[in-house]
User: Which sequence fits this backbone?
């Protein structure tokens, strides 16, 4: 069943303070009239349940086209990220300043390699 991208025009992000700041400075941040934000800042005190809840909220929204998540944060909710198989919003794991990108942990790259046969 194909999923429509019509009406999806937001980029959402779950990330550390530096990543969120960069995205906000680029002008991508939004707080809707109902106080619904398109970003969640995660720090050392953020509980895994809060991260998982934000992930589920963003993936359920009909206005989000792409969800960026720092890879080290995605690792904290890896089973949830790996279970997500919808086309929209697309999940992209990104590096952070203190945590370099590791392709062997990226769920989308793993699926691509499985399809290609690598």
Assistant:
């Amino acid at each position: 069943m194909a999923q429509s991208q019509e009406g999806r025009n937001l980029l959402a992000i779950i990330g550390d303070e530096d990543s969120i700041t960069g995205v906000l400075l680029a002008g991508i941040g939004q707080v809707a009239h109902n106080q619904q934000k398109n970003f969640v800042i995660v720090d050392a005190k953020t509980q895994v349940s809060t991260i998982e809840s934000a992930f589920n909220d963003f993936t359920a929204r009909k206005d989000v086209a792409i969800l960026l998540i720092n890879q080290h944060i995605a690792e904290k909710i890896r089973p949830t990220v790996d279970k997500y198989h919808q086309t929209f919003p697309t999940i992209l794991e990104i590096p952070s300043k203190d945590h370099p990108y590791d392709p062997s942990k990226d769920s989308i790259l793993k699926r691509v390699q499985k399809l290609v046969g690598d």
Remarks:
- The first helix runs from residue 17 to 25.
- The mean pLDDT is 89.
- The helical segments are 17-25, 48-60, 71-74, 78-83, 107-116.
